[in-house]
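RETRY 2/3 - previous attempt timed out on the joint model. Re-submitting the same 441-residue input unchanged.
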Amino acid sequence: MRNLIDILDLSEKEIDFLIKKADDIINRPEEYREKCKYKKLATLFFEPSTRTRLSFEAAMMELGGGVLGFSEAASSSAAKGESVSDTVAVVSGYADIIAMRHPKEGAPLVASMRSEVPVINAGDGGHNHPTQTLTDLFTIYKEKGGFENLTVGLCGDLKFGRTVHSLIAAMSRYKGVKFVLISPDELKLPRYVKESHIKPKGIEYEQTSSLEYAMPKLDVLYMTRVQRERFFNEEDYIRLKNSYILTPDKLKNARQDMIILHPLPRVNEISTSVDNDSRACYFKQAKYGKYIRMALILMLLEVE
Amino acid sequence: MRVDSVKNGIVIDHIACGKAMQIYNMLSLDKLDCTVAILKNVPSGKMGKKDIIKIDRDIEINFDVLGFISPNITVDIVKNGKVSEKKHIALPEKLIDILKCRNPRCITSTEQDIKHIFKLADREKGIYRCIYCDSEA
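RETRY 2/3 succeeded.
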């Protein structure tokens, strides 16, 4: 029985398989409408999330399966003090597969140790969010046709951004990939991420605090939010916050075929006036997320 | 200064200077009723100075603790006044229930009855990471 806790649980081959499968689902949706008939997905969301939970639920429904679960800890037995292990031991008797989001890092791993059915990590605090990474990869594949030789700019909060760390880990496995790390000094990519994924593979990368400087080089621009609470003082935040807000003006020097991604929710880091630019892919990205989750559910349930 | 040789017991040698008390505490040697000697700042050809612990009884030792605290440690098992076995301790791949994760956001801070497990992430630097949250030990 397989689980998905960390994006690195999947080999390059398995990611390729999921991408091909998701693409096939888009092309032949009628073939998949009853693949999970009589199967149930439990969405155990111990903290609120709109997109991820709905994406999982929509994915299972489109496969003909059913969905049960809760969307916040207050409406679960966790409010009475039940442990993650006990919750999962019970739920794995009711469902065929579990998607779990939990504010504590490592909770889905604990769940997978106890569960009798596959567990998918749907986000554990600031730690991992592998299905977001699958979504990011599938979007890059759909919009750029592959991963090799791409220059990927990651912009904003590179220190705490879990989606950034996982995307770097996953993209580092492809040939010719380069990274441009765009962030204020306070929010630079942690050294251990560079040492675990970028340096061992001899991947070219550069660090800059200027989005304008990086822009012309990029095939992919991955935006994240610079949050006020990450700064030690208000002055630094005010000084820097506008540098990392994407506007049509900052896109002037970008390549015409560059794509802009964002894990969402967006607050103000991408101006709404960018939404109509053909390079803006973040809403498409959310839609692709459903298809790659369908492919993942099929894989973990071992449904052909 | 002279400390008697162990007749039947264990000598933990080549402990990095200053680490002997940590090992004493982690192995709960205070609970033993036999003679235990802690030697600190012992001159050493290889290490300059080292610590040594002598235990005058053959007890079960958690070698993982030793390897984690000071990776070049040697353990001599002494029988009838002679070294019957010499073990070189390396960094263990996993530490189970030896350390607790300090990350307050880690599931181990709230979940009851859970094993605290750290995995060796970098042998050269001796870095361990929590298997649940990836925090450094």
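Chain A has a mean pLDDT of 93. Closing ticket.
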